[in-house]
Amino acid sequence: MNVSLLLAFCLISSLICCSWAEDGHDFTIQEKPCDPAADAENLKNFLQSQKSKDLLQLLTGRTNKQRQDIKKSYKAKFNQKLSSNLVEYFQNRTEMRLMMFVARLMYTNESILARNILFSLDVAHSDAFKKDWGYMSIIITTNGAQLKAIVDEYQRIFKRALKDDLNAKMRKESGKKFLASIIDAGVENGRPANGVQADQIEKYYDAVPTKGNNCAFDKNKDLYHLMTGFSFEHLKKFITNYKNDKGKEVIDQIDDHCGDGEVKEAYLRIIRFATDPYTYYATDLHDGFNDDKEHVLDGVDRILITRSEIDLRNVNKAYEAKFDHDIKHSIKYHYKEKLAGYGDALSMIMKGN
Q: Lower Cβ count inside 10 Å, N or C end of the chain?
């Protein structure tokens, strides 16, 4: 089938069903021409005729922005909320895990991240669950502009400040103050999106702890600024230069000389992310697949949905390099029988359009 016929097929059917192409793209889902009104009509028909697979193929074949446009068209045409209809549909079919995944598909990325922060906070500081670092991971792996968007969305959804919830739900004062300070930095003083400041590399060598427990962010302010005030591109360059000049790994110095606690965990995660963000996401995905408690799978949903339009193919390559099989294999292995519908939806995100 040539390209023009394939495009025509997608427009007519409003179902994007193409597999990965050798196009050099890092994402699995890209924006292709589609009609939101036609998509809304098709979704209504799929709901009424209980065609779950067709419904999922349509939604996972659209970008986040296109899904938001479909929601508006659906509301205008049927005077109903698409998200509510989808939730009710999967609730009635007792596919609760799939229902939660589809609900997330209909949120903006900022909303997915804001909601995951709250859920992770509740889990992480509850005696009923083991530690969950999702809330921290989201906050520390975003730049200043991205974090502000998430913080604003958190306020819009929950009608309270993220900092207030951190203060109420976290147990250690050092962790509370650390994350609050990152939020307070805002766009102007927060982490830049990119760029390396060559004259700010060597001057921070002494900030890396070499003995004792010299990592408290309010005492070792240079280490704090290094970890939170520069772009990840800059931090990666710092890590490389430090190893070349000092013969030591920054991550080992932090691990050996920072005691325990949330600040240490944050620094280790920041270093891992700066060094290789794709392996960072791949590791979190693998942990999620192998610990299928509901709160861990929330992180799986978050990564697959939010990275699908950015770099999910690169995450998949890192996953395969580290675990000797790709993400699709893990999905099939873990959800072939249990949560099969959920597994199908994850596979569709990986296949993309």
A: N
Closest C-alpha among 17, 20, 22, 31 to residue 309: 31
| pLDDT digit string, tens, across residues 97-133 | 899 999 999 999 999 999 999 999 988 666 555 578 9
How far apart CA 305 and CA 112 sit, in angstroms, is 9
Do residues 44 and 71 touch, judged by C-beta distance below 8 A? no
Residues comprising the chain, all counted: 353
Cα separation, 109 vs 345, in Å, equals: 18
Contact 132/310 with Cβ under 8 angstroms? no
Task: Please state the separation of Cα 240 from the chain's center in Å.
Answer: 26
Q: What is the dihedral of CA 31, 35, 41, 43, to 10 degrees?
A: 0
pLDDT at 19: 42
pTM: 0.89
3-state SS track over 98-113 = HHHHHHHHCCCHHHHH
pLDDT tens-digit profile of 24-35? 689 999 999 999
Q: 258 with 215: CB under 8 angstroms? A: yes
Strand segments, DSSP code E, in 13-131 are none
Q: Which residues of 66-79 are buried (b: 16+ CB within 10 A; e: fewer)?
A: bbebbbebbeeeee
* Rg, C-alpha atoms of the chain: 22
CA distance readout (Å), 11 to 104, 172, 223, 270, 349 = 25, 54, 53, 43, 19
Distances (CA, A) of 20 to 74, 141, 278, 302: 29, 27, 19, 21
pLDDT surpasses 90 at 3? no
Contact 204, 220 (CB under 8 A): no
